Amino acid sequence: MRKCSTRRRFLQRSAAVTAAAMVAPSILPSTAFGQNAPSQRINLGLIGVGGRGSALTGGFIHLPDAQFLAVCDCFRDRRERMRDSMNAHYGSEVVTAHADFREVLGRPDVDAVIVATPDHWHVPIAIAAARAGKDMYVEKPLGVSLAWAKVLRETLRETGRVFQYGTQQRSIGFYRRCWEMVNNGYIGEVTHADAWCPDISSQYEMFNVKQWGATEPAEVPEGFDYDMWLGPAPESPYTLDRCTCFGTYHHYDNSLGFIAGWGAHPLDAVQWVLGKDDTSPVRYEGTGTLPKEGLYRTIGSWDMQCTYGNGQTIRLMSHRVARPVVESIRGSFVENGVLFHGTEGWVSADRGRFYASDPRLLDLALRESDRRPKISNDHHAEFLRCVKERALPVSHFEAAMRSDTISHCCDLAIRRGKTLAWDPARECITNDGRANEQMARPIRPPWDLAKPLVSREG
Fold first, then answer.
1. Domain around 94
2. CA-CA-CA-CA torsion for 352, 355, 360, 364, nearest 10 degrees?
3. Is residue 452 part of a domain?
4. Which side of the chain, N or C, has fewer Cβ within a 10 Å radius?
5. 163 in the same domain as 27
């Protein structure tokens, strides 16, 4: 059976990190921990151990102030493999495997959870985690419904739990360099930004039934709790492409597709660099394609213009649209990245390099008077630090909410075939009532967001 290779090169690197972490020495003298002695460690639960969960394990398990205690997944073989791998790393049977995330959230010895489930589960589990007194690192995107995300926002305000969004690029130096150049005026006044990421075509060959996924009902694999996997999503038949990592990314019941699942990364970076963490663009227009057959009905490719209230714009592109645009400016192309256009030049970043119109900007030393962003060199360690200090992470909830809004508005503008107007203060579409209704989705019983799912008593 084909293994899930998510986000290709990124997860190939992440898998290498995970493998290295798993063979690291499992017993260290107490003096090696210093302030990270066992009493100071954060006890973690991992909810979702597939492609993203496995990658995130590699980011956390080597940190001396982190200790996994529980893993959870709807696939029995996955959760048991992860449990056994972690226990081999720790050198003892400290990690338990669970089929139901509520068991993990109900444990009083778990301090925080990593939510790496399919997208449609991100917000409901995060809400349950906050109500159970757990801090959380939540994979992007926030999910399938901005109405659900608003409930999470209120729950976080009520409970005071720490939320870190899984958009690691604020902890990557190349993106921080863009922030420094833009916010200190080295390219003049920014007029517009380009943001791009892979679309579904990057995974065509991974599907069991090409090109848009199997629709024929199939037998649910042994050891897989399909009803729990569906959770709040509509009930629908299992197929060979339904519950793979690719189905998770591209089935509209479970996600918005790569316009959100991948788009969250460059959009978050643009919002951060432009200082827009408390707002979103007010106008969305452009074009996109939708599959007309097969299982996957998320946006196939896109070219969207998003305009802020001050006139600045983002051009959000799928990688096939972006390639000639980016190559014409910086001469090379990587399938995800950002580019900021100023009145006196441009700067750009992807996960492997920083680019600039003026070569002097590549290694220019900042002036003492220059502004500097919040420094986070390790996204996972940043989360643990904020849990200990009860601090606001570099990728906090409001930043997640506002950048996620862009994906939702772009998705609906393409589906509705019209320009949409957004009010960032009221957080609603103002020129299309039907589109505004689609910001909310029905939730399948018994997963009502208003009901507590877990007892805090354990």
1. 9-170
2. -50
3. no
4. N
5. yes
